Every structure is written in C-alpha cells, then in structure tokens.
Amino acid sequence: MQKHFWIKIVLIATLIVLLLIPLGMIDGLIHERSYRQQEVVADIAASSAGSQHLFGPVLVVPYTERWTEAIETGTGSDKKKESFDRSEDQLLYFLPDQLNVEASLATETKRRGLFKVRSYVSDTQVHGSFKLPQNYGSPQPRHKGRIEFGSPYAAMAIADMRGVLETSPLEWNGQELGFEQGAALPVENVSGMHADLPPQPVAEGPAALPFRFSLKLRGLEQLEFIPAGKQTRVALTSSWPHPSYYGRFLPDPASQETGPQGFHADWAVNALASNVAAGLGSCREIRCFDAFGVRLMDPINIYSLSDRASKYAFLFVCLSFGAIFLFEVLKRLAVHPAQYALVGLALAMFFLLLLSLSEHIEFSLAYAIATAACTGLIGYYLSAVLASARRGLAAGAMLAGLFAALYGLLQSEDNSLVLGSVLLFALLALTMVATRRVDWYRLTAPYTVAAAPKTSP
Q1: Is 416 exposed, middle or buried, given 0-12, 13-18 or 19+ CB atoms closer than 10 A?
Q2: What pairs with residue 238 in β-bridges?
Q3: Which residues contact 73 (CB under 8 A, 6 or more apart)?
Q4: Which end of the chain has fewer CB atoms < 10 Å from its terminal CB, N or C?
Q5: Which pLDDT does position 59 carry in this prediction?
Q6: Phi and psi for 440 in degrees, rounded to 5?
C-alpha cells in the first residue's frame, strides 16, 4: 500500500502540471484581448487624434550671413583670384521668459465593440512674454560676413494637428496675428502651427513682448507638455478622478487635489532644470526634450486585473488539491484522480468566466458571479465525492475565502506581497494544526471508497 500512496501523490502532481495547459491557454486569451484593446486605441488614434504633446511657443528669427570668398583658380602664369558671393541661412531661437499654461480637460469615452478608449477635449489658455535683447543678441558671424535678419515667427509644436478643434488668433504685443499650418521647426516628424510676426527693429533696445492665445484640442488618454519657457508654469484641471502623472517633472505636491470630482495639479519648471534650451539647436526629434504630463487612467483595467488574477491560478489549484488530499488523509477516503481533474478544470473556468463577464459588466460584479458559480459547483460536487454535504460546504467555503483573499490582493496592489505572505502562512499553520496528530507511517493502510449520498426518488 505504500506504493499506492506514492503513486497517488505522483498522479496528483502530474494533474497539476497538466492543468497548466488550460490555464496557459486562458492566460494567452487574456493577453490577446489586451492586445486587441491596444489595437483599438491605435485604430481610433489613426482615424481621429492620438495622445497630444504641446511645445511652445518659441520665437524663431531666421537670418542670413553673407560674405565674399576669394578663391585662387588656374595654375602657373594663369593663376588668379576670383571672388564668389557666399551665404548661409541660420536660425535664432528665443524661449519665453514666462510661459503660463492653464488647461481644463473634459473627458469622454469612445467605444469600438466591447473595447473602450478614454478621450479628452482640452480648453487651453497660453500666455506669457518674451524679452528680446538689442539686435536679437547680435549673433556672431561664422564667416566674418554681414548679418541680414529675416521675418521672425512664433512656432508651436502639437503632436497631432487633427485634434485642433479651435484656436484663437495670437495676441502679440497688442496685435492679433493668425496661425498658419506647420511648426516650421528643424525637428523631424513634428507637426504644429506658426504665426508670422512683424519684424522687431534690430537697433531698438531690449523689448518685452507679451503674447496670448487659446487652443481647443482633442486627444486620447494622455496630454504632455514640454517646458519651453525660462520659467514654465502649467495648471491642469479635469473632472476625471484617476490621474497618473509621469515624465521628468512631477506636479507640486501641495497643489495636487484628487477626489471624486476630479483632479487639479500645478507644475513649475525652470529652464536650468530641463534640456530644452540646450537642445533647441541639436535635437532632431521632439522626444529628446524633457517633458511631463498626465494619463487619464482607467481605475479598473479588466485585462490587467484578469492577468494578475490568472497568475494565482496555479497556487489555487495546488491549495485546492492539497485540501482535498487532507480530507483523504484525515477521513480515510479515496478520491479518484479524475475527480481531482474535474475540480481543477472548474477552478480554471473561474478565470475564463471572470474575463468574459468583466467585458460586459462591472469587474466587481463579474468577480462575484464567477466566484459564486465556481464555489457553488465545486462545493456541490465535493459533497458527493467526500460523502458529506457538510464537507462539501466546508470545501466551498474555504475556496470562497481564497477567492475573497485574491480579490483583496487585486484591489491592493501596493500591499499584495504582505497580504499574500500572511495568507500563505495562515494556510500553512492551518494545515499543520489539522495534521498534527496524523501518523504518517500508517497512511499505507487501505482507504475507504466514499459512497455517494443517497437521494430520495
């Protein structure tokens, strides 16, 4: 009989390994649905407008350096010098001394079948001032030539111009100027708009030039800012209660307000702390600039929660099989490996039910329905397997407690490690207490096959 005991343990271990196949298929389905969600986001962004970033305004002053270059031509007695006129185009960049951005986000939900994507419309007010030095700072000629200034313009980079719903004229030093398409910045793959400015008299002393404009912008899921000012201040308000701040700079903790009515946050960034001023002439991609922003997070991402839950599936199977095996040991019953397999498949169905139901109803309700269905089925089945309705109810209650603990782990990600450790310790302690008087050397005695409970006709 000792041989039979060890064969039973090997069969149970083999069943646990085989159950990894359906559990892995369910986990693959969760990832497939999650990827489909990402494809929907990309699809909606392709037909509408994607996530947005704002950079600017930046004052750009084109200038041309012209010089005459003498070059010797010919050889020997035919050698002579000829003069050629040369020119080189350059750009001067000026950041606002003060840049203030106030944005208010109104959120909405776009749907594509079962999948949802968070969208927003931002009402943005941008104002500040430039301080120009005399002669635009008198750029140093690279070839000792003369400098000729072109027409300056204010450039504003926007990630996806299809999201621009409205824009006011640029109020520049008391004048109203219209925006035109194109950021006109030497940065690859960047869209935006610019406004041609009246030339500033180069001989005039340092000038303070205030500006102001408004922008109504649509985007998906996140809004990002690049601090273009020597002193940049951004104030962001929304009715969405679940913001996630990211990037090189986080908002001032004292300014953050988050609640059921929404959130508010303020950023203050000095140019000395960012790479924007140093990178204006060298960065060729907008992503190389320091940036910060906010994501409109979904508080319950059903695919990430289902994925996290499925990672506990193997532990659930092991604990359930261990509990049934303890019933065998303590009550001297014989449970067939096929019955173990059916219980394991019922546990796997929980995670499939959870995924499918949560795509149609609230995650908490889907979790409750899947738990009730699986614990009820397993409890009813084990009532017959263990030859006692009370034992079946006890097994179902134990399983319900495990599912309740798992829900607590899913809702408290920061404390999941300590909660999981305490739960495993408690289960180990319960097992040790329940088996403290078991004579393991006598387990080779023959088991009693459980008789199915009689039912009245």
Answers
A1: middle
A2: 105, 263
A3: 79, 80, 81, 82
A4: C
A5: 92
A6: -65, -20
Overall size of the chain counted in residues: 457
For residues 371 and 350, the answer to whether their CB atoms sit within 8 Å is yes
* SS3 assignment, position 59: strand
> Which stretches of the chain drop beneath a pLDDT of 50?
1, 456-457
The pLDDT, as a whole number, for residue 456 is 47
Residue 335: which residues within 8 A CB-CB, separation 6 or more? 324, 325, 327, 328, 385, 386, 450
Q: Position of tokens 């994501």?
A: 295
Q: What dihedral angle (degrees, nearest 10) is formed by the CA atoms of 424, 428, 431, 432?
A: -170
Which pLDDT score, from 0 to 100, does residue 263 have? 94
Nearest to 227 by CA among 202, 250, 193, 198: 250
Residues paired with residue 132 on neighbouring β-strands, in sequence order? 207
Q: In this structure, are residues 245 and 265 in contact, taking their beta carbons and an 8 Å threshold?
A: yes
Dist CA 61 CA 280 (whole Å) = 13
Contact call for residues 275 and 289 (beta carbons, < 8 A)? yes
SS3 268: strand
Give 438-447 contacts, CB < 8 A, sequence gap 24+. Answer: 438/329, 438/330, 443/5, 443/329, 444/1, 444/2, 444/4, 444/5, 445/1, 445/332, 446/1, 447/328, 447/332, 447/333, 447/334
- Which residue in this structure is represented by tokens 């319950």? 300
HSE at residue 112, side-chain half, CA atoms within 13 A, is 15
Buried b (16+ CB within 10 A) or exposed e, 385-404: bbbbeebbebbbebbbebbe
What is the C-alpha separation between 287 and 142, in angstroms, rounded? 30
Q: How far apart are CA 348 and CA 6, in angstroms?
A: 26
